[in-house]
Design brief:
By secondary structure, this protein is an alpha/beta fold. 44% of the residues lie in helices and 14% in strands. It has three domains: 53 residues, lambda repressor-like DNA-binding domains (434 Repressor (Amino-terminal Domain), Orthogonal Bundle), CATH 1.10.260.40; 129 residues, Response regulator (Rossmann fold, 3-Layer(aba) Sandwich); 156 residues, Response regulator (Rossmann fold), CATH 3.40.50.2300.
Amino acid sequence: MRKKKAGTHKMAEVARRAGVSLSTVSRALAGSPLISEDTRKLVRRVAARLDYRVDAAGRSLRTGLTHTAGVVIPLTHAETQHLSDPFFLEILGAIADELSARGYNMLLAKVTQDPTDWITSSIGSRRADGVIVIGQSLHHVALNALSDADVPLVVWGAQLPDQRYASVGSDNEEGGYSATQHLLDQGCRNIVFLGDAAVPEVAARLEGYSRALREVNRPRDARLELRVQFGSDRDTAHRAVSSLLDANVAFDGVVACSDVFAMSAVQALIERGLRVPADCAVVGYDDIAFASLTTPPLTTVRQNCREGAKRLVDNLMRAIGRERPSSVVIPTQIVVRASSQRERYRNLPSIRAKRVSGSTHGRERRRRPG
């Protein structure tokens, strides 16, 4: 009893110094979305200075909450994809930071089948209060069913027809459109698309690519739409671009659905003695941390993972609190670097191309695409 009174007294001191009520302190330390981010930060700073900690076990007994959030990555479409993928690392790190700021732990899983069993068992066994799903994969119908059953979840992904669960995601169609439009503005006319349209986000990017071509009366060319799956080995995009060069298919631009795909495409081009961007301009997707450090630095479509993580966790807290979460579409931004500035670098020699073409690889210099 004395320990409880001491805790209550210290909580009251936190409230006094922060200039808020006891209930606000309680909600702020529990990560409630009803409390503004500024107030949550203030209360946490004061609590840290006073060395005040919430009794997690006691709080769990009182509230029935575990203060753990499940994060599941369904990879039915790409079973071999690793969690070490740079985009996964970036968004998972941002989600972990947001959950930690709300006093939540993170329970992480990768599944290669329908995630329904993992989600329902995690919540039913009180291992998690709610779940964030990273990507719909092939499970749109199953996620709708979970939402209909009032399972507290929110999905990172594209907005799809007849969707009944809340999603947070980038404007993928606009991202694909802006990447393609940028290459058209650089004088590209035969533009390769690298990605797997079986994935909802990629399908939206392909629609944006197609819309940009329609606007300039460029027909789609099935030979230039290359299915490259996430999770395939890193040489798959390299081989796809190389196969076009081997077949003498003309192209002068590449829109890749990930920065890793784009980097592989650049490597394939320079190995054939082609100049990037002068002979072929390349745009990636995600703006991972080292996209600006490649040679040449990579133009890419930036997804705002920090904003996405904040919206995901906000929505999850609402769902856990039995409030209705809402879907959010986050704008993308094209970040222009050297890999796509074709007109600017058209007359510059490619040092790397010269080195490769003069090496012992034994590869004959191919004619320039386009």
